[in-house]
Amino acid sequence: MLFRSVDEAMCRHMVLNSIKSFRNKYKKDYGELVIACDNRNYWRKQIFPYYKANRKKNIERSELNWKDIFDCLNKIKSELKEYFPYRIIEIEHAEADDVIAVLSHTYSRREKILIMSGDKDFQQLQRFSNVFQYDPVRKKQIVNSDPITFLKEHIIRGDPGDGIPQERRAKHDAKAERQPAGEGDQVSVTEQRIRGEGVGSHAASI
Questions:
Q1: Which of 122, 90, 87 lies closest to 105, judged by CA?
Q2: Integer Cα distance of 198 and 71 in angstroms
Q3: Residue with more model confidence, 47 or 189
Q4: SS3 at position 88
Q5: CA 73 to chain centre
Q6: Residue 35: which H helix or E strand, with range?
Q7: Which of 105, 70, 73, 102 is closest to 89 using CA atoms?
Q8: Distance (Å, rounded) from C-alpha 55 to C-alpha 163?
């Protein structure tokens, strides 16, 4: 299979321009930008091995050279941490979603937070006051008038994109493979680590 090459310079240019544009546009209303990053070793994967399993298959079938793309993005992430003044949070075993959720829960009580992402999962965070979401690709605000119901329905129906089964199937899987004692504590440990960063964020972004 032939892969398309990755233009590292162009990729870096696009990332830096996007970050600069978001910061300049929204800093006045939402404060300083925070970049939340995924860690490679998800705690969800440790508990549920099939988490995001389908994405690996899609990557293998893709004509894009995803290894080079990920290597390029990781290099840019390292450069941002070392050479730029942006606030970047990456926590061991946590996804960017976890970081954004904890920051939203912690700081929305006194500050406005804008989540720059089109990911539907973030709609559940709108149950916190002062949390807003903007899709930079479709260029529109995402508003959910009933985020609690959205979360309940999302849990019951599952999420095929993340490999999360429906509730009935999930109960069946749980009987076949019980979770080892103590693994559930990883959620609270992750939250403690994020809080331990001590970052007073005003805006959360992926």
A1: 122
A2: 29
A3: 47
A4: strand
A5: 15
A6: strand 33-36
A7: 102
A8: 9
